[in-house]
Specification:
It is a single chain. The protein folds into two domains: 139 residues, Cobalt-precorrin-4 Transmethylase, domain 1 (3-Layer(aba) Sandwich); 112 residues, Methyltransferase, Cobalt-precorrin-4 Transmethylase, Domain 2. The strands form two sheets. The protein has a five-stranded parallel sheet with strand order 3-2-4-1-5, covered by helices on one side. A five-stranded mixed sheet has the order 6-7-10-8-9, sandwiched between helices. Strand 8 and strand 9 form a beta hairpin. The longest helix has 18 residues. The protein has nine helices and ten strands. The radius of gyration is 21 Å and the shape is elongated. It starts with 17 loop residues before the first strand and ends with a strand. With 275 residues, it is of the alpha/beta class.
Length: 275
C-alpha cells in the first residue's frame, strides 16, 4: 500500500478540504426525546469545539442519514447550523463486503473514494458513526484511509468511546488490551473463542474487550460467566454516559453467585483479564 508523502498543509498551501471526524453520543436508541425522558444536552458529553465544527459543515459521510439528521437537530439547539438540515448533503457509507475481505480497486473502494469529492473540491467533509467515535469499531476507517491516500487532511475531534470508557472503569489492565469485536453467534464456536481469548489474556496479561448487539447481551453474558475460569476478572459496562449507566467488575466465581439482568436495548461492553 503506497501512501502519499506528507505535503505542506498550512492554510495558505492547502487546497483540499479536510475530513473531520465528528464524535456522536452513545445514547442512540437508549432514551427517547419525550417530556418524561428528554435527550440530554449535547454539551454534557461532547466538547463545544466538536459541536461548532459539526454546525459549520455542509457535507457528511455517515452510517445512517436519519441518525445524522437527528444529531444535527440536537446540534442546532446549542450552535447555529451554517446550512439547514434539509439542505445538508448526507452520503451513506457503502456496506463492507461480507466476510470483511475486499480486493484493491473493487467497486467498494471506488464508492469510498467518490465520497471524498467535496473535500477534493476544497470543502470540509464530516464523518460520523451511529455512536461514539467514527472509525473506531466502525466502517468509517475505510474512508479515513482513502483520505490519507488522497492527501486530504484528517482531523479527529474528542468525544466518547464506549470501549475506552469501559476499560477505564473496569479496573483491568489498561496498558495492554485488545478490542476483538463480536464473538461468534454459534454456540460451540463462541465457547471456543472465549477460551482462546482467555488463554491469550492469561499469557499476555492483556485485557480483552468485546461487544454484542444489545438484544443478545444476556446470551453473551451467560456464555462468559459459564465458560471463563472462576478466578478470571470479568467486567461489564452498560449505558455509559447515560444517567443510569454503570460499570461492575468481579471474578467469575463471584458473578456466578449473583445473577445479572442486562437490558436488551442498551449497548454494553464486556471485558476480562485472566490471572
Amino acid at each position: 500500500m503506497n501512501l502519499p508523502m506528507p505535503v505542506n498543509d498550512t492554510p495558505d498551501a492547502r487546497t483540499n478540504g479536510r475530513l473531520l471526524l465528528i464524535p456522536n453520543t452513545l445514547d442512540l436508541g437508549c432514551t427517547g426525546d419525550t417530556e418524561d425522558s428528554p435527550l440530554p444536552d449535547l454539551r454534557e458529553v461532547l466538547p463545544m469545539g466538536a459541536l461548532q465544527a459539526a454546525a459549520g459543515l455542509h457535507h457528511w459521510v455517515t452510517e445512517n442519514a436519519k441518525t445524522t439528521r437527528a444529531f444535527l437537530k440536537r446540534v442546532a439547539e446549542v450552535a447555529p447550523l451554517a446550512v439547514p438540515i434539509q439542505e445538508q448533503d448526507i452520503q451513506v457509507l457503502p456496506r463492507p463486503p461480507k466476510g470483511g475481505q475486499k480486493k484493491p480497486g473493487s467497486g467498494n473502494d471506488q464508492a469510498i473514494r467518490a465520497l471524498l469529492a467535496p473535500a477534493l473540491a476544497g470543502q470540509d467533509v464530516g464523518l460520523m458513526s451511529e455512536a461514539g467515535l467514527p472509525a473506531v469499531a466502525d466502517p468509517g476507517s475505510a474512508l479515513v484511509l482513502a483520505a490519507h491516500k488522497a492527501g486530504i487532511e484528517v482531523v479527529p475531534f474528542s468525544g466518547p468511546s464506549s470501549l475506552v470508557l469501559a476499560l477505564a472503569a473496569s479496573g483491568l489492565h489498561g496498558q495492554s488490551f485488545a478490542f476483538v469485536g463480536y464473538l461468534p453467534v454459534e454456540a460451540s464456536q463462541r465457547v471456543q473463542r472465549i477460551r482462546d481469548l482467555e488463554q491469550l489474556s492469561r499469557k499476555a496479561h492483556q485485557t480483552q474487550l468485546v461487544i454484542e448487539t444489545p438484544y443478545r447481551n444476556a446470551a453473551l453474558w451467560q456464555a462468559l460467566v459459564q465458560h471463563l475460569q472462576l478466578d478470571t476478572l470479568l467486567s461489564v459496562s452498560c449505558g455509559l454516559t447515560l444517567a443510569d449507566g454503570w460499570s461492575r467488575t468481579a471474578t467469575v466465581e463471584q458473578w456466578r453467585k449473583r445473577p445479572l439482568n442486562l437490558p436488551d436495548k442498551v449497548p454494553a461492553v464486556f471485558s476480562w483479564l485472566a490471572s
